[in-house]
Amino acid sequence: MIEYLMDSAYYKSIPYLYEGMKLTLYITIVGLFLGFILGAFAGLGRLSKYSIIRAISTVYVEVTRGTPILAQVLFIYYGLTVVNIGELTSAIIAITINAGAYIAEIVRGAVHSIDRGQHEAGRSVGLTEKQTMRYIIWPQAFKRMIPPLGNQFIISLKDTSLFSVIAVAEVLYMGKQYYNATFEIFETLIMVCVFYLIITIPTSIILRRVERKLDV
Amino acid sequence: MITVKDLHKSFGDNEVLKGIDAKVDEQEVVCVIGPSGSGKSTFLRCLNLLEDITAGEVTIDGDVITDPKVNINEIRSQVGMVFQHFNLFPHKTVIENITLGPVKVKKISEEEAKEAALPLLDKVGLGDKADAYPDSLSGGQKQRVAIARSLAMEPKVMLFDEPTSALDPELVGDVLQVMKDLAEEGMTMVVVTHEMGFAKEVGDRVLFMDEGIVMEEGDPNQIFDDPQNPRTQEFLSKIL
Fold this sequence. Notes:
Chain B: Keywords: ATP-binding, Nucleotide-binding, Transport. Chain B: Pfam families: ABC_tran. Chain B: This is Amino acid ABC transporter ATP-binding protein. The structure holds two protein chains of two kinds. In chain A, helix 3 (about 15-45) crosses helix 10 (about 185-215). In chain A, about 80% of the residues lie in helices and about 0% in strands. Chain A contains ten helices and no strands. The longest helix of chain B has 16 residues, at about 170-185. Chain B is globular, with a radius of gyration of 18 Å. Chain B is of the alpha/beta class. Chain B has a six-stranded mixed β-sheet with strand order 6-7-8-3-9-10, sandwiched between helices. The interface of A and B includes residues 125, 131 and 135 of A.
């Protein structure tokens, strides 16, 4: 039994998948970081008092959420061939734009959920609109964003598997390469899933703890 | 100190304030009473522009605050506001709640702000709560912190929007006592309240509002003991 496991894809694919997982995590983390910045702007943009900013943010969010990420990445990869940015950059841009739209909704919801009285109290001691946002609304809203952001991390992590279509060497792509050579399709895919679960299950557990601690 | 001329406020088609004229002198305590929906809270909120004013003119200490050129933040920093639901900042300690305004608006140092805040906390009877978070305080304590937070900006006027309405009855007394002390020190105050005892004892003048206008105003004893307007009579007969 042990000999069988050691001699099959269950064991032998691990180094390849490990390499793939590093790239998966890299794309996810960089993409989510940039996506958070984009999403924060878009989310606050949707609450802006200027209708033009609201309109731009809304169009971005709705178009992105309304189209599949696979179409988005193909669009970025092939559609932007004029500038030939390569598959890794395309993948990061795709995650940034896609996650950014969902994060925009997370940011909007969290900021919106802060009691109006907080804003009024800030303004009534003389803080400007910006100061009120920075010192009073945002810190409270950010706490409420953490659980849904963790959720978005898990979603985006899994979304990166779609980038195998543009030959990004992430974990699913590495798995495919492996089983194309060895024909151990079933075993390799099991291991690919295990690699995802190694990241997602602990993330869920940590999130639940954080949620309890933050009391949100 | 405050002059209000023909103040109108509409929310969409709904006209809430239909022409209010009022005057508050320096060191005067004016209590605003009236049934719910009468516009008394809206009136108060117009005095520090938490609501934009539809028409009319409000002057505070010589500044026409309804002038669009006026620096709204500076005006607000000179007008303290105490809310029904306290609106303390839950992510900050009691002392941080109080020092935030002075540090960010008046640009004084943290230490200086702290030094100024501690006596204020003592004054509202919460000297030992400086490092507590609002969640650990009772409603009455929260409201007293909120009063200290407003006072830290050294306002010329204090506005109170039903400051005791959200409190358990046994906690009301402490808050009213703090307000009474303030009044005795000569603070100019406008108090929207349902505490008729407070209005009678501490108020220099009472405004009775109904349907968006000031129906009757006068000395508290006259309003409570000998109301002239039938609406005032009706309102007082229901609550006293």
